[in-house]
Amino acid sequence: MSNILAISDVHVAFGGLKAIDGCTFEVEKGTITALIGPNGAGKSTMVGSIAGAVSLTSGSITFDGQEISHLPTYRRAQGGLIRTYQISREFGGMTVLENLLVVRLGQSGESLINAVFRPKKSKTETNALVGEANEILNTFGLYRLRNEYASNLSGGQKRLLELSRAVMAKPKMLLLDEPMAGVTPALIEILGQHLLDLNKGSGMSMLLVEHNLEVVDKICSRVVVMATGKRLAEGTLAELRSNRDVVEAYLGGEVHERIGS
Ligand SMILES: Nc1ncnc2c1ncn2[C@@H]1O[C@H](COP(=O)(O)OP(=O)(O)OP(=O)(O)O)[C@@H](O)[C@H]1O
Ligand SMILES: [Mg+2]
């Protein structure tokens, strides 16, 4: 099995604070790999570094065989590396459907030129895009809300929209930073199943930052544990449950509650 993502001795500092302090790990192609660890471990900073929003102090990041750490975010996204945020970032003034369409119109950069100079071609392309978007909205249970303004959606529906937008971009790999945060238990179940279906259906790789270990247990085949900016351990959740370092660093006093042993 080959890797889709390789993080090699990455350092990130914010002023004097070492948010990532020599972190190395890999994500195998076609897997959902979890990135867990205590608050402030550097997980979101790692996701930002992989996506291109945070600059490395040193180290390298290879995605799909290419060194990407010098590339701007949009180039990484064009290459198939798409992130979602800890807090949803939909366009509130656009409808749900439009929120999906702009993902791809923005991606090609061609569509505006087509709309002006080749309106017929543009119309066919737009119809195809609308078809694709509707199909994704249907999968995520948002089809009936397609003409609703995104700002009118509930928190849970915004999560589904965020995921739909990410899928619309046809990523090779999704970076998900706490997609279940602030979501009801029923929706957590549904979101987890959607992620699993996407992974099984199209082989989409994912790196999932998640505090909810039940979700991790259900959908992730590998788990990377970060603490104080470093990779502390790696394995299946079952293996990690019996790892003393992990239990102590990650879970401290709440060990038994959180890791379920
Ligand atoms: N933009 C920033 N400027 C300065 N310090 C930052 C910045 N972003 C993160 N940090 C600091 O870097 C460290 C790692 O933060 P990060 O958000 O990556 O942790 P995390 O593992 O995602 O935590 P959580 O589980 O709470 O989301 C923390 O000490 C945090 O305060
Ligand atoms: Mg975080």
UniProtKB/TrEMBL annotation:
Q: PROSITE patterns per the record?
A: ABC_TRANSPORTER_1 (PS00211), ABC_TRANSPORTER_2 (PS50893)
Cross-referenced Pfam families: ABC_tran (PF00005), BCA_ABC_TP_C (PF12399)
Tell me yes or no: is Hydrolase among this UniProt entry's keywords: yes
An example GO CC term for this entry is:
plasma membrane
User: What keywords were assigned to this record?
Assistant: ATP-binding, Hydrolase, Nucleotide-binding, Transport
List the molecular function annotations (GO) for this entry: ATP binding; ATP hydrolysis activity
Q: Which residue intervals define the domain ABC transporter in the entry? A: 5-253
Asked if the keyword Nucleotide-binding belongs to this entry, the reply reads yes
Q: What is its EC number?
A: 3.6.3.-
Reading the lineage from the top rank, the first entry is Bacteria
**Under which name does UniProt file this protein?**
Lipopolysaccharide export system ATP-binding protein LptB
